[in-house]
Predict the structure of Putative tRNA-splicing endonuclease subunit sen54.
Amino acid sequence: MSDSEDEVQDWLALTRVQDAAVLKRGEKDFAPDGTNIQQSILDRSRNAMYDALNHPRATSAKNLVYGEWDSERQQVRVDKPKGTHFFTMGKAERTATFLDPEEAVYLAQRGTLQVMYRGNALSIEGICAFCMSACRQENMLVYSYLKKLGYIVRRAPALEQCVPEPIQHLRQSQGFWFWLTQPWHEQLAWRSVYRSYSQVYRDLSIVSTARQTHVEPIAAHYHVYKPGTQFKKSKPLPPDFYVRVVDARRQNIPTLTETRGLFASVPETNEAPKRSPITRIKQGKKQVVLAVVDAGIVSFVRLVETEFERLN
């Protein structure tokens, strides 16, 4: 017991708190007061915002890159890529570099790329309309958000989806080979008291009647690298984060079975030999980041798979 617990509590401090006056709060600047002056100021501010948004965006002709929308591949073809962005973006082939829809939208919004279609220059709205047919709006929002923070973001390759087999709680008495090796003169069930027909049928059944539900495999959408990483498109290093995009308005958080399938598509992290047990529990052997998009607001949730039995 500490010395502070033996001391007598000073209850007079509560009276001083009660005597203190509550701080007064003034009128909020944004609180509507119903006057024409406030409405006029609000209208002028709104019109100034609209004028700024409608102003044509100027860009340097030296840094502008032209691309053509390829309807068959659902990508943007760039014949003459230039600039540092293409060091970490796009997929280079023999004759051109192809940009994914989210990459094209990001470069177009920052004024680096001008997308053409059949000889006509597309506006930002037109580019988004073409790209949204091949990429969800939530994915483009998460991609642009991470790129603005300085991360290197690449689409996850088409990995072979591995879904773990469903867990079946089968007793040894339900195995087929067990029945062949047992003498036939013994009783079929060993329970002394049955309180329902389901218990009788469960003991007599040889093949499990559990319904197998099909679960669509899920995997990470993007491989994310920290800023400053020495990245090469020809030989990329293992990513720092595996990001899965979730639409909060249309999708739910992955279930346990889906989470197991998500972890099955992610390799194990390189465990440091001198990490403490608490650190190993927090970081785990596999990590997946869920980018939850709710009405344009992006929130990140980290899922960690940890084996407690391996911790000493």
About this structure: The first strand starts at residue 65 and ends at 70. The CA atoms of residues 140 and 209 lie 44 Å apart. The chain has a mean pLDDT of 78.
